[in-house]
Amino acid sequence: MALGEAVIVAGIGCRKGATVDEVETAIEAALKAANCAPETLSLIATSDGKGGEPGIVAASLARGVPLVLVGPADLEAAGTRTQSSSPRVLALTGVPSVAEAAALAAGGPKARLLFPRIVVGPVTCALATTDKTP
Q1: In Å, what is the CA distance from 81 to each residue of 11, 18, 108, 116, 133?
Q2: Engineering a disulfide at 99: which of 11, 38, 79, 80 sits with its beta carbon 3.0 to 4.6 angstroms away?
């Protein structure tokens, strides 16, 4: 990645046991909807509670991008910048959208949503971006 190039983070939320194909399908749908080429993806992020989900781990490995696990405090802080909300997710996690909050938290304090969460089967994916120019 070149200096000054935007970082694109796919935030992932999912139901337990989501497969790599289901995670990949959600990522592809979000990238396509946001008009982003697949190779522009820089990171995959999720809550640290989902860090052991084989589908998310496998998607990160398949794409050759780091998997960033976001702790509860960082999810909560980023949760104030989310655009959508799931009552079920809010009750379970305390944040309106795990996918959006994870993407924003991993992107840093200046990150903004490029594309709000999209639901594809048991997986949600949101895209955040930040310009890494020093």
Answers
A1: 14, 26, 12, 11, 22
A2: 11
The rounded average pLDDT for each run of 10 residues, N- to C-terminus, in the chain (134 residues) is 70 95 98 94 94 95 96 87 75 76 92 94 95 54
Q: Which amino acid is at 131?
A: D
pTM of the model: 0.88
Buried b / exposed e along 50-62 (16+ C-beta atoms within 10 A):
beebebbbbbbee
**Interval 112-130: pLDDT, tens:** 999 999 999 999 999 999 8
Delineate the domains of the chain, giving CATH numbers in brackets: 6-131 (3.30.420.180)
Strands lying side by side in the sheet with 112-120: 67-70, 41-47, 6-14, 123-131, 112-120
